[in-house]
Amino acid sequence: METAWSNYSGKKLQALMDFCDEYKEFLSASKTERETVKNALALAKKAGFKDLEKVTKVKVGDKVYLNNRGKSLVLFVVGKEKLEKGFNILGAHIDSPRLDLKQNPLYEDGGLALFDTHYYGGIKKYQWVASPLALHGVVCKKDGTTVDIVVGEKDDDPVVGISDLLIHLAADQMAKTGAKVVEGEDLNVFVGSIPLKGKDKKEKDPVKQNILKLLKEKYDIEEEDFVSAEFEVVPAGKARDYGLDKSMILGYGHDDRICAYTSLRAILDMTTPERSSCCILSDKEEVGSQGNTGMQSRAFENAIAELMNKKNEYNELSLRRCLKNSMMLSSDVSAAFDPNYPSASSPNNNNAYFGRGIVFNKYTGARGKSGSNDANPEFIAKVRRVMDDNKVAFQTSELGKVDQGGGGTIAYILANLDIEVIDAGIALHNMHAQYEVASKVDIYEAYRAYVAFLKDIK
Ligand code: MN
Ligand code: MN
Description:
- This protein is an alpha/beta fold.
- It has 2 domains: 4-96 and 252-456, Aminopeptidase (3-Layer(aba) Sandwich); 98-235, Roll (Aminopeptidase i, Domain 2), CATH 2.30.250.
- It is built from 11 helices and 22 strands.
- The strands form 4 sheets. The protein has a 9-stranded mixed β-sheet with strand order 1-2-3-13-4-14-20-16-18, with helices on both faces.
- One manganese (II) ion binds at residues 255, 286, 432.
């Protein structure tokens, strides 16, 4: 099978591998949407991007960003054309499936302290037990301060985890269906086993009391502060090379930080394009894109309005025209053909494969394309031409075989704003598992595709 690897040797191959090393580092340090925004902002500032809220005027060639509540981000590079001519937009999401702590998470049972969780996004729950997990979060205190907490990533940090039943006693469990083997309310995270001693000790729950004492000493937080906190329980540890030939990357949260990072790198490389460039890193995709940091929020339109205003081009009609004239690659991960599960894939060359480059999906959705943006072929023709002109390796695919399942993305939300949109992205194995896998050449081809789209689509 011909793959994009055949285009790489020598310096080109080295550039690809270096890019993927940088991505691995970014992914390892970006386990939550907040951390992703923080790390993306650091790269953007280094590349000369300024906070749109802090500049008074915007002119051609300027690079600006809007940080939405630390959980989503929009970046712009102002092109030579008027803004109402539209943007070339890249979009991806930066939230990933995980376990969130409940608002009253800490309790004691059987002499052990645990955190109660509610899972976020679509997961196979049995994949999250008997493995090292880390705790990433923020605690917003009543005095207006915020405490950042990360436990489980440094070599000498403890990890936390969820128990699984020993095989010796699992006769009943093993007879259950996959959906019920481990149930949502049983995803409780073990955090301690030493009872509090001494004069502070109350009658009830000494192990829980000891954990609270530890949290107070280390972070100056009280039990009630969990009410205004966001904690995400995620797989502990770094992203790594995968395969004896190091051709792939295994890591947590490729979905969809893999498209977010490659899109980000593409806009960071832009210098004064003809049509203005835009990159959206959005939150909440895994739960439906709602909320004021999700793609359904008016925050994106507001951001464009602010940009137009600071370039003295704002009026309502110009904003509407800008949206109508915009074109977008809405990127999210795709399902790569898996020889262990061939029967779930789409037949007849309609499935994505590792190594064949960025994936374009005319439509996504489930059960008769339901919930999908179905890209217009006139627009797909433009995209094909730009990819071919820039010698970008691409493939087209469906997310598995018809009626096997499906999935949605942010594409339809932008298309509802009258933007021309197609789904694109990078194919994975193990999507939504603790550790997902992607091909390095696909990552690099996606980055090249994004650069070509920002530069040349019109
Ligand atoms: Mn996704
Ligand atoms: Mn997903």
